[in-house]
């Protein structure tokens, strides 16, 4: 049992089946940098409270830093028999500096050590994802300049509804991504609480200074209850949920752009560099990047469901089930980061097919609502105006023409208040200009929002 940090009371070696079944170093080795950082801070604190001498502290810190460098360089040998990344690093340290290395684990357990490393990793991941979200927002804001003045159909139920500026459409995604960033920031505050020093479940008799460790590692606070410290993974589930929401937003965007790229819509051209072809049909340019963004969202959703199921019935305090949390979180973070890295250049490099959109923009009676509100402004009740304009739309449909092409007599037959000024609100350009409310697609309102986003994303 010499390889086991817990083998003193055992008379038989671990069965190889259990050893292979229970190891986690094959996936938790990616926590090595966080484990080294946490252990360095712990060692410095132990020296500050008199558990280690300054010489012992320096030996431990130097040894840990060198081990971290070897792992980063790919020259460190991990052993499955040592179970996880934490014991691999500690055993290597002890082999190099002797019994001094055996003092490092004073005042902590693997339970609070794992939770600390995981929180540090998630915190780092949150910061990376936030940066990628910001890059994607910048790509959308850049499009507002490229597509200035362009009008596209807005849809509800995937049916043409009202006209909107393309810039207004791009900024809608900025808003969604901003809420994702806000959720990440909110999540980060709960992740950023130090569990180290609560030990196995009840604390420690060693006179440790948890605040010192928290300060060195950049934690905003300290977990206050030792039973709670290592038993819960709500911080990981919250992160997994935020990643899921990001994935859902990306999937929705990908679905819409897949439609826009079809011959039927013909609104958008993707860069060839982000498309693939067919092995049999030479004319095909398939939006595989978008389809994979949409498809990979299923992995992220599934990982969240796995984590919820994993933690739904665990008693206090630590249970080995929690070893299963990391692969799910790692995969969700990796997947979302990969999707975001792909999304930004796709958004930046796509071309809006303005001529194609403009050629069909008048289909669908996108100015009907504006005409209805023109009647409302003249004193007609909304429900009455709705019915009257509906009949006018029916008349135009039978004549196979736009509302703006109807003769004045048809408008006057619908309501006596309608005169030649009705043509001032018809057509998509006039309809867009007629909007007034804050948050609308009115060109002045959109320009204000574009300026706001440029300021936010500096």
Give a verbal description of the structure.
This protein has 458 residues and is mostly helical. 60% of the residues lie in helices and 5% in strands. It is built from 18 helices and 6 strands. It has helices spanning 16-22, 25-28, 32-48, 54-73, 85-97, 110-146, 166-191, 210-217, 226-229, 234-260, 288-311, 325-349, 354-360, 368-377, 382-399, 408-414, 428-434, 443-456, and strands spanning 151-156, 159-165, 193-194, 221-222, 268-269, 351-352. The chain has a two-stranded antiparallel ribbon. Strand 3 (193-194), helix 8 and strand 4 (221-222) form a beta-alpha-beta unit. The longest helix has 37 residues, at 110-146. It is elongated, with a radius of gyration of 30 Å. Residues 8-302 form the Fumarate lyase N-terminal domain. Its EC number is 4.3.2.1.
Most strands sheet: 2 strands, antiparallel
Number of domains: 3
CATH architecture classification of the largest domain: Up-down Bundle
Strand order of the largest sheet: 1-2
Amino-to-carboxy terminus distance? 57 Å
Per DSSP E runs of 2 or more residues, the count of β-strands stands at: 6
Please tell me the overall pLDDT. 95
- Give the ordered list of helices and strands: HHHHHHEEHEHEHHEHHEHHHHHH
Shape: elongated
Question: Poorly predicted ranges (pLDDT <50, ≥5 residues)?
Answer: none
> DSSP helix count?
18
Protein name: Argininosuccinate lyase
Pathway: Amino-acid biosynthesis; L-arginine biosynthesis; L-arginine from L-ornithine and carbamoyl phosphate: step 3/3
Keywords: Amino-acid biosynthesis, Arginine biosynthesis, Cytoplasm, Lyase
Subcellular location: Cytoplasm
